[in-house]
């Protein structure tokens, strides 16, 4: 880690330690530091500076998401992240710790790396204790200073991790972490914490078993339709667009003022603009709000972490929020701002209930307001700033007329229900259901690909379907890793085409994609291997019944299927997962056994149930000789999996046992390692913590003292910020320290 002073300047590099008021020591404690005091001061300064610097980086889940949606920033993060990991690796290696910090192959990398840091802390602390035992005459304060030195090392490593964390999209995009939406309820914050908790428990009693229940479930479940919706409204004409003030809000102050204004209204219209092409989870860029009098456009990128203040008016049950097509807006509000909606009216739902034929907003605007809305900015890049005037106008128009449209639709709903509020009630209820939607991160499961497959009209054979499945997994993995949308990595239609054509050559894959997506071009060989893998499985017809779960009898694929059969880079030590090739072998073996059974039975003239099934499979098996015969359309029965006499049952069970055993072993090993690391760490941390806490008050130098440039100890290693860490960073070998400095030395604090 590049040393720097806490005021942001770089430490002057020199091999000589000098001090203005003391004689240069002939015997340095370690190169560049005349005594322990100087070293500790420097260490603390470096830690403070690093912590400050990391705090200046775009915060995770905040501006960070916005920056990450730009490839330039991603590249920068990747390079800096690698440098940090390399430095950490060297540091750890130097102290004899396991240091595979640079293994980027797993989505869980960050978790594992953190475990490595915990382990390293353990090793370092053990060394401290060991060294302390070698110096029986040492004063307690000296033990402390030594400990501090090591602590500096540990803290530096931890800071590195924190910084690296910021460079990671892994956590955000992984499917292993739940998306934590803000569940704070502003109204609960006004009462004492214990009481708030109690109230919340009472409210959510029915949902206590589900800790991830909707925070406004109770309110929404008990919400009744506002009385005034029970009467046919007199539509209130909108103000001409040109005469309406449209305020652009990009400061917290203005946002708070807007929230206060909204809190006093009884209704307002809302819309969002979102960017989803160059980001895996997408990012909400703009929020438009209209009251009867004014329009507001909120810069949701600038105010991303502050948008939550709007939760107050958005969840106020006495205020109706009017949206058009709120399905995604509700999710985006949760995902990006932790904002929920209570009491909403969706004009899209109203249009549907009226059977208008076309339910889009531009159609409603044409019908009710005679406005030709130009939807050409719908898919514009809403991240750009400053927003061009045309885009701002477009955004304003999306909510400006909405309250009037809401009036007109309600009036029509009354007319359609013979003056009764029944249809309004239906729309309002449907809207309420939309508010109950919970944002969940896109999760990758073994069957995810089937959802997409079923939506397509194509009918694939087993090889094509396997290719589709492998491509789907590859695409998901790439999108998460690169923080891109799946559509950017490989659009659906191209993925279908590759799976359908099963190109034999890499160029064939390119031919299926026009224009070829950058990541496809970059990973052409990987994709080629996947297609090859798919071509190797037995060719079977996939019947319509099996479209539901065509590989139901097959063992589940692990993440390892994303890697080639000989690529073990993703495997942890001692772990031998069953490769896809092995799985295929097993499947093939299963088929062979069944075929053989069928043949034997043929000879004897008797067919057992299993043999009959085997025969059926044989018959449905498409090979060069049989594919021209009429197919009996018999497939592997799902029941075979549960039929103990079937070979498939045996194979399936065998695999299940193996994989279960494997999983148990892994889980146990991980638990043990984790507990041990935790035990050691907690033990040492607690032993030392009390003493340090009391000593720290006397010994911690005042920050300004540490931060003064001229007083900052001078590091011995010449470092350049741009230099390669492998050459720039050489950890000091503490075993070479001059321990004589400890004997009889006066502690200077
Ligand atoms: P709108 O509700 O029309 O203002 O759209 C809100 C956001 O939804 C836009 O900013 C787009 O990100 C997204 N969106 C709207 N229409 C489409 C579409 N046809 N395809 C993909 N995304 C869309
Ligand atoms: Mn919208
Ligand atoms: Zn819009």
Helix fraction by DSSP (H/I, runs of at least 4): 40-55%
Distance between the termini: 27 Å
Low-confidence stretches: 1-23, 552-604, 621-641, 645-649, 682-727, 739-749
What's the gyration radius in Å? 33 Å
Spatial strand sequence of the major β-sheet: 1-4-3-2-5-6
Bound ligands, named by name, code or SMILES: adenosine monophosphate, manganese (II) ion, zinc ion
Content of β-strand: under 5%
How would a textbook summarize the main sheet?
6 strands, mixed
**Structural class computed from helices and strand pairing:** mainly alpha
Task: Set out the fold topology.
Blueprint: H1 36-56, H2 63-68, H3 71-94, H4 109-134, H5 140-166, H6 170-173, H7 193-203, H8 217-221, E1 246-249, H9 252-263, E2 267-275, E3 283-290, E4 295-299, H10 311-314, E5 320-323, H11 327-337, E6 344-346, H12 347-353, H13 361-369, H14 389-400, H15 402-416, H16 422-435, H17 448-455, H18 462-482, H19 486-489, H20 492-501, H21 506-512, H22 518-522, H23 524-535, H24 580-604, H25 609-620, H26 647-699, H27 703-707, H28 725-728
Parallel strand pairs: 1-4, 2-5, 5-6
Antiparallel strand pairs: 2-3, 3-4
Helix pairs in contact: 1-5, 3-5, 4-5, 4-26, 12-15, 12-16, 13-15, 17-18, 18-20, 18-23, 24-25
Bound molecules: adenosine monophosphate (AMP), manganese (II) ion and zinc ion (ZN).
Biased composition (Polar residues): 1-13, 714-732
Keywords: Cytoplasm, DNA damage, DNA repair, Exonuclease, Exosome, Hydrolase, Isopeptide bond, Magnesium, Metal-binding, Nuclease, Nucleus, Phosphoprotein, RNA-binding, rRNA processing, Ubl conjugation
Family: Belongs to the exosome component 10/RRP6 family.
């Amino acid at each position: 880690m590049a040393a720097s002073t806490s005021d942001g300047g770089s430490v002057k590099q020199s091999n000589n330690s000098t001090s203005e008021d003391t004689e240069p020591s002939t015997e340095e404690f370690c190169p560049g530091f005349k005594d322990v005091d100087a070293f500790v001061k420097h260490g603390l300064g470096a830690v403070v500076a690093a912590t400050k610097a990391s705090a200046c980086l775009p915060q995770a889940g905040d501006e960070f998401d916005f920056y990450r949606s730009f490839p330039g920033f991603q590249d920068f993060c990747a390079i800096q992240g690698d440098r940090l990991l390399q430095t950490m690796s060297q540091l750890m290696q130097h102290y004899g710790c396991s240091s595979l910090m640079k293994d980027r192959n797993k989505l869980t990398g960050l978790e594992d790396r953190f475990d490595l840091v915990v382990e390293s802390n353990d090793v370092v602390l053990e060394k401290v204790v060991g060294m302390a035992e070698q110096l029986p005459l040492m004063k307690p304060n000296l033990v402390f200073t030594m400990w501090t030195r090591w602590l500096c090392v540990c803290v530096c490593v931890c800071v590195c991790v924190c910084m690296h964390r910021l460079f990671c999209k892994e956590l955000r995009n992984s499917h292993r972490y739940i998306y934590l939406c803000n569940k704070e309820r502003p109204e609960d914050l006004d009462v004492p914490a214990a009481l708030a908790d109690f109230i919340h428990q009472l409210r959510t009693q029915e949902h206590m078993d589900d800790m991830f229940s909707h925070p406004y479930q109770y309110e929404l479940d008990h919400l009744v339709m506002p009385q005034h919706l029970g009467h046919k409204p007199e539509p209130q004409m909108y103000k001409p667009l040109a005469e309406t003030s449209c305020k652009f809000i990009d400061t917290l102050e203005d946002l708070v003022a807007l929230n206060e204004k909204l809190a006093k209204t009884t209704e307002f219209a809302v819309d969002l603009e979102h960017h989803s092409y160059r980001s895996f989870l997408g990012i909400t860029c703009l929020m438009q709000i209209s009251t009867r009098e004014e329009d507001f456009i909120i810069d949701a990128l600038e105010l991303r972490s502050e948008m939550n203040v709007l939760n107050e008016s958005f969840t106020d049950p006495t205020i109706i929020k009017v949206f058009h097509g709120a399905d995604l807006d509700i999710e985006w509000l949760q995902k990006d701002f932790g904002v929920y909606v209570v009491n909403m009216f969706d004009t899209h739902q109203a249009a549907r209930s009226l059977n208008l034929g076309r339910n889009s907003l531009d159609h409603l605007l044409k019908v009710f307001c005679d406005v030709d809305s130009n939807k050409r900015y719908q898919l514009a890049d809403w991240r750009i700033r400053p927003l061009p005037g045309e885009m701002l106008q477009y955004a304003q128009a999306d909510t400006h007329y909405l309250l009037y449209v809401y009036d007109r639709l309600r009036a029509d709903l009354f007319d359609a229900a013979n003056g009764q509020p029944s249809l309004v009630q239906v729309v309002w209820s449907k809207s309420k259901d939309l508010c109950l939607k919970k944002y969940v991160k896109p999760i990758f499961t073994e069957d995810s690909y089937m959802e997409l497959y079923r939506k397509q009209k194509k009918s694939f054979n087993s090889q094509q379907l396997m290719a589709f499945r492998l491509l789907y997994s590859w695409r998901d993995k790439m999108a998460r890793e690169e923080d891109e949308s799946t559509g950017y990595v490989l659009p659906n239609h191209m993925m279908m085409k590759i799976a359908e054509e099963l190109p034999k050559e890499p160029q064939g894959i390119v031919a299926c994609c026009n224009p070829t997506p950058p990541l496809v071009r970059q990973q052409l060989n990987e994709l080629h291997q996947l297609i090859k893998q798919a071509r190797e499985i037995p060719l079977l017809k996939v019947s319509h019944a099996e479209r539901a779960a065509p590989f139901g009898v097959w063992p589940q694929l692990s993440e390892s299927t994303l890697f080639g059969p000989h690529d073990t880079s993703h495997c942890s030590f001692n772990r031998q997962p069953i490769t896809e090739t092995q799985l295929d072998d097993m499947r093939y073996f299963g088929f062979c056994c069944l075929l053989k059974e069928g043949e034997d039975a043929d000879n004897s003239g008797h067919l057992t149930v299993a043999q009959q099934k085997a025969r059926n499979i044989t018959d449905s098996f498409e090979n060069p000789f049989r594919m021209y015969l009429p197919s009996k359309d018999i497939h592997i029965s799902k029941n075979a999996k549960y039929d103990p006499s079937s070979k498939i049952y045996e194979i399936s069970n065998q695999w299940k046992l193996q994989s279960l055993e494997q999983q148990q072993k892994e889980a146990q090993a991980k638990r043990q390692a984790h507990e041990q690391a935790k035990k050691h760490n907690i033990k040492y941390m607690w032993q030392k913590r009390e003493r340090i806490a009391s000593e720290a008050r006397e010994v911690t130098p005042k920050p300004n003292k540490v931060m003064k440039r001229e007083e900052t100890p001078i590091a011995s290693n010449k470092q350049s910020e741009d230099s390669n860490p492998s050459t720039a960073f050489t950890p000091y070998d503490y075993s070479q320290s001059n321990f004589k400095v400890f004997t009889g030395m006066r502690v200077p604090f």
